[in-house]
Design goal:
about 30% helix, alpha/beta, 7-stranded mixed β-sheet, binds 1,4-dihydronicotinamide adenine dinucleotide
């Protein structure tokens, strides 16, 4: 009998396994594919690897701005993809070795939840039975593919985030359905390497969950780089390589060598026996409380399978909350200070309330904002680049939201997460000394406005 059985080896499952093993729980983890889950194998890591190649190429193309001259700048698509595969293999091996170091038993196979008794939860995998005192479900999510007429007939012209990562050749043109995070990261990559990119978005703006001023800035930057955007546009049919969409009561059509569907992801709750122990769902994901407990005793869920914050770092933290509670340290999950990043070039990073959500939630707020050009380091390294930092505070002067567009927003946002998590006020933050010169100083400049 194991102390903890985990189904799924993504950022929720493998982090929970590592932490639990470290605390001397006996842990068994089932994974049907590769350790690392979507994040490591077909999400965060492979896309960041591709995007770094694209950024290196763009930097070389525009190096003359910095007094550096490179001749015959070109790229090799196959090598870019091969490098991505090498990085993924290396990191998957790293996760496997962490499992070993923490005495986690890993079984490759598809686990099915069979039943729960007063003493244990029974799991079946590869025709063997396994028993655990506790079960943590981390089965993740999968790309949502909507019912669009003609989609099934379009064959391998239509891709999700999984297939697009393994293209053998660069498509000359790409139509992206859905201007969310996945859509914009692939738009950025393919635009950088010269593919003709069109983004079709149903809502009035791309990156719907982000601050709309910043999303509009990003769209403007990419429009200038040559991406065609169609907003308020609803796809109605796919006809081979053609995508037909309705915009302002007219039907328009764009054509692409490939078509990427990136209209959201759905929690993976089917096919592994949740119903056998009566686990309750809510809005398509597993219903959990703030300790990540499901309605069934000793059964927990973490990560995308809960269906509401589909981010790797949320998943890992949720896994930690489960392990802390199992090992005698009371812990609660909260979501006010979860950062999000869009790894376009420039990057967009955000945490907390946007102006839109503050209004929706009836929060009185104040906004301070400053162009990133007020940071000396930003100007030195991002010549001519656009950037903006926005800080939202509530009536008590506490920081409730921070939104940054400009490089390297992804690396500087975490400090502001701490401010929100700790409910720091502007005057408390103003005492913090930032290293100079850094782009992060823009936050300090903004909060002094
Ligand atoms: P998303 O929810 O971010 O964006 C989907 C977009 O598609 C929305 O803007 C939506 O309005 C639009 N849409 C939906 N149906 C449409 C239709 N029929 N026609 C045109 N537009 C349509 O979902 P996405 O980009 O697929 O990403 C999935 C999840 O993965 C997200 O929750 C995201 O947070 C996560 N993710 C996070 C990343 C990061 O942290 N950097 C990177 C990639 C994914």
């Amino acid at each position: 009998m194991f102390d903890l059985i985990i189904i799924g080896g993504g950022p929720a499952g493998y982090v929970a396994a590592e932490r639990a093993g470290h605390k001397d729980l006996s842990v068994l983890l089932f994974e049907k594919n590769m350790m690392g889950g979507v994040c490591l194998n077909e999400g965060c890591i492979p896309t960041k690897t591709l995007l770094y190649s694209a950024k290196t190429y763009e930097n070389a193309l525009h190096a003359d701005k910095y007094g550096v001259f490179a001749e015959n700048v070109h790229f090799d698509f196959e090598k870019i993809v091969a490098r991505k595969n090498k990085i993924v293999r290396k990191l998957v091996a790293g996760v496997n070795s962490k499992m070993q170091q923490n005495n986690v038993t890993v079984i490759k196979g598809e686990a099915i939840i069979e039943k729960r008794t007063a003493e244990s939860i029974e799991i079946q995998c590869n025709n063997e039975k396994y028993f655990g005192k506790n079960l943590l479900i981390c089965t993740g999510s999968q790309a949502f593919v909507p019912q669009i007429e003609g989609l099934n007939e379009a064959g391998d012209t239509v891709l999700t985030n999984r297939e697009i990562l393994n293209l053998k050749q660069q498509p000359q043109s790409l139509v992206i359905i859905g201007g969310g995070v996945i859509g914009m990261e692939f738009a950025s990559f393919y635009n950088s390497i010269g593919t003709e990119v069109t983004v079709i978005e149903m809502l009035p703006e791309i990156l719907g969950n982000n601050d709309s001023e910043i999303s509009a800035m990003l769209r403007d930057i990419y429009s200038k780089k040559g991406i065609n955007f169609h907003l308020n546009a609803k796809v109605v049919r796919i006809d081979g390589n053609k995508v037909l969409f309705e915009k302002a009561d007219a039907i328009e059509c764009v054509e692409g060598e490939k078509i990427l569907i990136s209209v959201g992801r759905r929690a993976a709750t089917d096919g592994f026996g949740l119903e056998n122990i009566g686990v309750e769902l809510f809005k398509g994901g597993i219903k959990v409380d703030e300790k990540m407990r499901t309605n069934v005793e000793n059964v927990f869920a973490a990560g995308d399978v809960t269906g509401f914050s589909l981010l790797a770092h949320t998943a890992s933290r949720e896994g930690e909350v489960v392990v802390n509670n199992l090992t005698g340290k009371e812990d609660f999950m909260h979501y006010e200070a979860i950062p999000s990043v869009v790894y376009t070039n420039p990057e967009v990073a955000a945490v907390g309330q946007t102006e839109e959500t503050a209004k929706e939630n009836g929060i009185e707020y104040e906004v301070k904002k400053l162009p990133l050009a007020y940071s000396g380091r930003f100007v030195a390294e991002n010549e001519g680049g656009a950037g903006l930092c926005k800080v939202l505070t509530n009536k008590r002067g506490e920081i409730i939201g921070v939104h940054i567009i400009g490089n390297p927003a992804s690396e500087i946002i975490f400090g502001t997460c701490m401010a929100i998590e700790q409910k720091l006020t502007l005057s408390q933050w103003q005492k913090v000394v930032f290293p100079h010169p850094t782009v992060a100083e823009i936050i300090k400049e903004t909060i002094f406005l």
